[in-house]
């Protein structure tokens, strides 16, 4: 078992994660001293459960515990377990992991005691990490394309590509998928997969207007973003692309200006997404203006009934954008009143369910 690299991972004080290697099987868990994993709490039975091997696979067996053993929140007597499964022994939560080659997975710890910290079945780990690896490996995603329209003409200026999951045991929602991905540090990989699938779907359609592609904030602080964009250019050198980055990452104007220059070298426009969702970063906007500025829906919601002060503030921001030769997009237009108000105040582009729902590539 030492070569297999299996471990249990749990959250400890301060939110840190602790790895407990499974060096031997059977690997026994319970309240009694001397077991491989000691959980000193009354909710845990003296000898609660054990992990044993069948060939190269692991199985978890409940040993007649009082408060139960759970795999992915389902009560079990015995079940096969694999990488990413969430295990509960009474009210203690662990995630089963497998170390990469060269990772010690906590070498040196042969018996471990975990101090109790909660008294209810917790939700610290996201379920579905094993399925997420399958999704990433097999590319089980698709895209929907939402139109961005010229205002006031109503003609299509661009499409934003929005990811959807296609794994039978995972949600379709990209928000839910990213929640699972973030729990195992795979959010950048998931974001790259969505962009690649969008370009693969759009590539046979050279008549399409600009295609807006999303990023995850983690990609701006990790390597690999530019390489992924170069791959997209190899797949579809003819497509007009724009890359969206969230306002929250606009903390270093010099770095954003450098990114903008690198994107331009690859004929990719830059868009700031959800502008004003946190704080409208006017300094960053002035020092590193993008090609597109997408205003957060909170600016747009109820704009037709907004007080004069809000409309004046928004008008000033739009005037600044015009001075910087930045095209402005009103996000979240949900009704005719908002569509009319965004046009009157000076937006040049609009997006939202009132203007068009996300649709599969064959329907656009």
Short description:
Helices cover about 25% and strands about 30% of the residues. It has nine helices and 20 strands. The protein starts with 5 loop residues before the first strand and ends in a 14-residue tail after the last strand.
Structural features:
364 residues; alpha/beta; Tumour Suppressor Smad4; TIM Barrel; 2 domains; 8-stranded mixed barrel; 6-stranded antiparallel beta sheet
Task: Please characterize this protein's 3D structure.
The protein folds into 2 domains: 6-124, Sandwich (Tumour Suppressor Smad4); 130-363, EAL domain (TIM Barrel, Alpha-Beta Barrel), CATH 3.20.20.450. The protein has 364 residues and is α/β, with parallel strands linked by helices. The protein has 9 helices and 20 strands. The protein is 26% helix and 28% strand. The protein has an 8-stranded mixed β-barrel, surrounded by 4 helices. Strand 5 (49-54) and strand 6 (57-62) form a beta hairpin. The radius of gyration is 25 Å and the shape is elongated. It has helices spanning 129-138, 174-183, 187-202, 225-235, 253-265, 282-287, 297-300, 308-323, 336-345, and strands spanning 6-11, 17-21, 27-30, 37-38, 49-54, 57-62, 69-71, 74-76, 78-81, 86-89, 92-98, 112-113, 141-150, 156-165, 210-214, 241-246, 268-275, 292-295, 327-330, 349-350.
Q: What is the count of β-strands?
A: 20
Largest sheet, in brief, is: 8 strands, mixed, barrel
- Give the name of the CATH architecture of the largest domain: Alpha-Beta Barrel
CATH class of the largest domain: Alpha Beta
Assigned CATH superfamily of the largest domain: EAL domain
Averaged pLDDT: 89
Helical content stands at 25-40%
Computed over alpha carbons, the radius of gyration is: 25 Å
- C-alpha termini separation: 53 Å
Which range does the strand content fall in? 25-35%
Note the total helix count. 9
Spatial strand order of the main sheet: 13-14-15-16-17-18-19-20
- Structurally, the number of domains stands at 2
Category by helix and strand content: alpha/beta
CATH topology grouping of the largest domain: TIM Barrel
Question: Spans with pLDDT under 50 lasting ≥5 residues?
Answer: none
The gross shape turns out to be elongated
């Amino acid at each position: 078992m030492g070569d297999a690299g299996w471990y249990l991972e749990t959250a400890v004080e301060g939110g840190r994660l602790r790895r407990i290697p499974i060096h031997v099987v059977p690997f026994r868990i319970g309240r009694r001293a001397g077991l491989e994993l000691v959980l000193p709490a009354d909710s845990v039975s003296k000898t609660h459960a054990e992990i044993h091997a069948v060939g190269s696979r692991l199985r978890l067996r409940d040993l007649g515990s009082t408060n139960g053993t759970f795999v992915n929140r389902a009560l079990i007597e015995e079940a096969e377990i694999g990488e990413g499964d969430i295990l509960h022994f009474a009210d203690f939560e662990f995630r089963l992991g497998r170390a990469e080659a060269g990772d010690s997975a906590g070498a040196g710890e042969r018996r471990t005691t975990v101090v109790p910290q909660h008294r209810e079945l917790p939700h610290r780990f996201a379920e579905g990490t094993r399925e997420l690896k399958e999704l990433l490996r097999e590319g089980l995603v698709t895209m929907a394309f939402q139109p961005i329209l010229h205002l006031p003409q109503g003609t299509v200026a661009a499409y934003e590509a929005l990811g959807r999951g296609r794994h039978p045991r995972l949600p379709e929602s990209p928000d839910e998928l990213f929640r699972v991905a973030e729990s195992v540090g795979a959010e950048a990989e998931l974001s790259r997969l969505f962009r690649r699938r969008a370009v693969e779907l759009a590539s046979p359609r050279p008549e399409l207007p600009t295609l807006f592609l999303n990023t995850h904030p983690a990609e701006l602080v990790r390597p690999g973003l530019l390489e992924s964009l170069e791959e997209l250019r190899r797949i579809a050198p003819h497509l007009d692309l724009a890359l969206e980055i969230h306002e929250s990452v606009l903390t270093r104007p010099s770095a954003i200006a450098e990114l903008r220059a690198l994107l331009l070298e690859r004929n990719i426009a830059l868009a700031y997404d959800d502008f004003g969702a946190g704080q409208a970063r006017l300094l960053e906007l002035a020092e590193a203006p993008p090609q597109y500025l997408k205003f957060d829906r909170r600016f747009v919601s109820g704009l037709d009934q907004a007080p004069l002060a809000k409309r004046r503030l928004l008008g000033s921001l739009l005037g600044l954008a015009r001075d910087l030769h930045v095209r402005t997009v009103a996000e979240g237009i949900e009704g005719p009143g908002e569509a009319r108000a965004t046009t009157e105040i000076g937006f040049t582009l609009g997006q939202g369910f009132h203007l068009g729902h996300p649709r599969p590539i064959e329907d656009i």
